[in-house]
């Protein structure tokens, strides 16, 4: 893994231009130093992933971010394809599969519905943590250090100022991660765990 604190963002949104929230989040961080952005739907419109290239990218970074909207309680299909192809047996997990061990991992996600919809008595019946369990299980299998997501709920109804504020928080998170490393993400975990409406 990378010796310095470097960030790899795997961005997945099939209609990026139509997403005010995800576009703003990406714009806030895409030109930051030591931050690499891979726009999957732009880079792989045919869904054919360059596995070796993506594996090399991962090894050059210390923090892996999956940035995407919640699609049917999961992620867009091209991100799932990336996972299926890149996280190979013998490389990412299994015998000899320790290349990603120790990697920090988190998701930056937006949800169209409000935060109160994501709890056990809400419209969606499950919390965000529960819906993201497959990603946490993947992190465990591959030896990543899993961190709570950076969540923007209620994306469909947010005004421009609120979107700007979320984007600035995202920028600040990566800025301080580059300076201080994992402890910044650990602090985010604590904050998320205190928000019981979406856990």
Description:
By secondary structure, the protein is an alpha/beta fold. The protein has one domain (7-193): Flavodoxin domain (Rossmann fold, 3-Layer(aba) Sandwich), CATH 3.40.50. It is 40% helix and 15% strand. It contains eight helices and six strands; from the N terminus they run E-H-E-H-H-E-H-E-H-H-E-E-H-H. It has helices spanning 20-29, 40-43, 51-59, 77-86, 128-131, 133-142, 160-180, 182-193, and strands at residues 7-11, 35-39, 63-69, 104-110, 145-146, 150-152. Strands 1, 2, 3, 4, 5 and 6 form a six-stranded parallel sheet that branches. Strand 1 (7-11), helix 1 and strand 2 (35-39) form a beta-alpha-beta unit. Helix 1 (20-29) runs parallel beside helix 7 and helix 7 packs across helix 8 (182-193). The chain is globular. The protein starts with 6 loop residues before the first strand and ends in a 6-residue tail after the last helix.
């Amino acid at each position: 893994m990378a010796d310095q604190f470097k960030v790899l963002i795997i961005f997945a949104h099939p209609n990026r231009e139509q997403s005010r929230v995800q576009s703003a989040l990406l714009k806030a961080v895409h030109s930051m130093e030591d931050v690499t952005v891979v726009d999957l739907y732009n880079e792989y419109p045919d869904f054919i992933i360059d596995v070796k290239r993506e594996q090399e990218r991962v090894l050059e970074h210390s923090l892996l971010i999956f940035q995407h909207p919640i699609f049917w309680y999961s992620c867009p299909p091209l991100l799932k394809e990336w996972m299926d192809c890149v996280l190979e047996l013998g490389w990412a997990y299994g015998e000899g599969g320790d290349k990603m061990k120790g990697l920090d991992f988190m998701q930056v996600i937006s949800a169209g519905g409000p935060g109160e919809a994501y709890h056990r008595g809400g419209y969606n019946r499950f919390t965000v943590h529960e819906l993201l369990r497959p990603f946490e299980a993947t992190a465990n299998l591959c030896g990543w250090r899993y961190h709570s997501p950076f969540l923007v709920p209620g994306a469909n109804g947010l005004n421009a100022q609120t979107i700007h504020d979320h984007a600035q928080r995202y920028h600040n998170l990566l800025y301080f991660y580059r300076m201080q490393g994992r402890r910044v993400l650990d602090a985010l975990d604590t904050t998320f765990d205190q928000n019981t409406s979406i856990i």
